Amino acid sequence: MEGLFDIADDGAGAAPDKAGTLAGNAHTSAPLAVRMRPRTLEELVGQQHLLAAGSPLRRLVEGDQPMSLVLWGPPGTGKTTIASILSRQTDRHFVEVSAVAAGVKEVRAAIDGARNRLARTGQETVLFVDEVHRFTKAQQDALLPGVENRWVSLIAATTENPFFSVISPLLSRSLLLTLEPLTDDDVRGVLQGAVTDERGLAGQVELTDDTLDHLVRLAGGDARRALTYLEAAAGAALSTGETTVALEIAEKAVDRAAVRYDRQGDQHYDVISAFIKSIRGSDADAALHYLARMVEAGEDPRFIARRLVILASEDIGLADPTALTTAVAAAQAVQLIGMPEARLNLAQAVIALAVAPKSNAVITAIDAASADVRAGKIGPVPAHLRDAHYGGSKKLGHGKGYKYAHDEPFGVAEQQYAPDVVADATYYRPTSLGAEAAVKERWERLRRIVRGEGGR
């Protein structure tokens, strides 16, 4: 049945080499990333927060306890690997459904088969659904009876935020496990292991330090991508009779020049500094260059997005009130979509922020207010502004003389709001740039009314 893989158990808890994307991964023509897929939880790289004793994943694999899981994480972090381990290490029947090819009919057939098998033999079924976010609502609804009645233990994998892409009834009946991007050290260990392991390259080649660093950078926390690039680079070297994979060979093999960028060193700080200063200086082209350098080097896109959110308030502020909205939307898109597609959202935000009018009035204002507070200018709250809702507060004079702004002309009341010690302080000094010019005009008029300086 297209899109549905029913992998039977051979009696030893391991899936035999039959149809299915998780079975038959030992043959030498299989991709390196498939051959090197971990077979046990102990071989799983990273995700230590999911591997503690008593964790849901441990209980599912080692305790053989029925439960349904939604695995959410970026590509190459181990979602399919976890399903593969389950297919090998549990005594349950394993069925895989491809969300790309399967429909409601195939899903219902898998559920019905699991229910019949449970009734007939008592054997439980693990149902693995890869890319569950590609399922329609109707297809996800078809999974509910099997999950709710525990005819299957569902393992659903997704690279997209499940709170947006998975229906609430299915999500509420499953445990959500979040997988984190692999660290550089994790990816480095995967590559080094693949070079020496008999299932991998079996010591046929060696990697120079520069080549290893290059492959780690290109991987961007994705073990599958790292192994794919390693396989290409090793193949290129061996085809020319070389046993050492030099950087030049790796660059040609994966068609990616080595970007001199250390995500934890000087390059990391220098490039992000130049990136921010280019946007502040309104040079969209330069900003896009530095964005591309960071993306190509595998910089964490969430780090880039966070800096854009900060910049939107620090360097643009009310000169373009939509800047913060744009930056936050880009950050949310990074979380929702992931790389590489989210580079488009980041690029759009970078261009919008670079060409926006600039103002540092927001950071200047909060810095000035904070400086006064740190200097001890913290006077008592004026009596007419204090809370007057509790018993006895009015006897203390709380709220007496307070003017309700909505009862005043123009909705603005002339009265003192700040403590005496900073009553005359001026923190917010808007510029005349962009939309802040209108804000400046309005703020100056409001300030005169509130402080009784005359004029409307």
Layout of strands and helices, then pairs:
Layout: E1 4-7, H1 32-35, H2 56-61, E2 69-72, H3 79-89, E3 93-98, H4 104-121, E4 125-130, H5 137-148, E5 152-158, H6 162-165, H7 168-172, E6 175-178, H8 184-196, E7 206-207, H9 209-219, H10 223-239, E8 244-245, H11 247-254, H12 266-280, H13 284-296, H14 301-316, H15 322-337, H16 342-355, H17 361-374, H18 436-450
Parallel strand pairs: 2-5, 2-6, 3-4, 4-5, 7-8
Antiparallel strand pairs: 1-3
| Shape category | extended
Distance linking N and C termini: 77 Å
Radius of gyration: 30 Å
The biggest sheet amounts to: 6 strands, mixed
- CATH homologous group name of the largest domain: P-loop containing nucleotide triphosphate hydrolases
Q: H/E series, N to C?
A: EHHEHEHEHEHHEHEHHEHHHHHHHH
Give the mean pLDDT.
82
Poorly predicted regions are: 1-21
- Give the total of beta strands: 8
Strand order of the largest sheet: 1-3-4-5-2-6
Look up the CATH topology of the largest domain. Answer: Rossmann fold
CATH architecture of the largest domain: 3-Layer(aba) Sandwich
CATH first level of the largest domain: which class? Alpha Beta
Kindly summarize this structure in a few lines:
The protein is of the alpha/beta class and 456 residues long. The protein has helices spanning 32-35, 56-61, 79-89, 104-121, 137-148, 162-165, 168-172, 184-196, 209-219, 223-239, 247-254, 266-280, 284-296, 301-316, 322-337, 342-355, 361-374, 436-450; strands at 4-7, 69-72, 93-98, 125-130, 152-158, 175-178, 206-207, 244-245.
